[in-house]
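Lab channel / #folding
Pinned by the channel admin:
"Please post every new chain as: sequence first, then the structure tokens as a reply. Keep commentary short and put observations after the output so the thread stays searchable."

First post following the new format, from NK:
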Amino acid sequence: MQALIIVLIAYYIIAFGYLFNIPALAICLREKNEQQHVKGVCMEWISTWCSNSSLMFFVFPFLLSLTAEQDRTEACPLLPSSPADDVYELSGENPVLLQNRIESRVLAWSDRYPDSLTSLIEYFEQNGFQIKELLADSRFEIYEGIGDRFRHSAERKSLSLDEYKNVLGFEDKRSRITGFINENNDQLTKAEADYDISRYVIAAIIGIESDFGKNIGRFNPFNAYVSMYAEGYRGDFARAQLEELLKFTTRNNIDVFELKSSYAGAMSFAQFIPYSVNKWFVGDDIFDMNNNILSVANYLAHFKEITGSLDGAVFRYNPSRLYTDAVLDLAKEAEDIYTAAR
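Reply from TO:
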């Protein structure tokens, strides 16, 4: 009997000795592929350290609880979807090893765009932003040929207003603008009263910019502006907007890669570029339609005062005569529909 007790005590000592061998588990975890599921790693640890079947009896319940908890989440990639400031803390990797991997990924992009990305990194470091971690993020990409998207935009390709309207889907928007106005009547009325901007013009802009909030773009603004800078298309503008974007995401604690935009980096229903977001957007949530309605009105009111006309204000929203005429025509169509219904 005493011998049995001694054996059991020995097994407990060995079991807990292995159980709390956390460095061994950490090494095993780091050696796995960055997408490897934690449960699989734990089972590998079992086979490595617990070949004795009796020892498995003591360790297995603990590991089951550990892996069950991990089943509730996805395995963390090497570079998590988190702000750059938290990358070391959240990755759990040795900071030196992580920094080496970041440098390696940044170097891969810098090899393709050696001068532009190096100067961009240096500029932001001098201005208090560390973008190396963002450039090393698995969600970062360069949009090849982004300059051609600007050169071939509808405003530049269209030869006439009718052709431009056709590209915009003007008739479809005409048929739906009254529904948007009815749905958002209270906020449009408030915007009109507060900023002296026609509700029909506000609705027309949101309709043309984002199809009344249904299309905010499929690009990422960080990737878009870095791509513009890397390819040398409006580099100074791209860098300035990138700085404004990082100010916005830092101030609001937003993961920049969670944002969607047009290829021009314009965001949300009003399609504001970062500078406009920081200067004229009303409210904190850029994906709240009420905030977007007030923000469009605020922007137009500012430039109406500067230019002396609503026409001039709309032109400043998008400096294209075709765009300005399309917005004002859509607004007039909507106003005529409401006038006729009275």
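NK: Residues 14-91 have pLDDT under 50 and may be disordered.
TO: also worth noting, The chain is about 70% helix and 0% strand.
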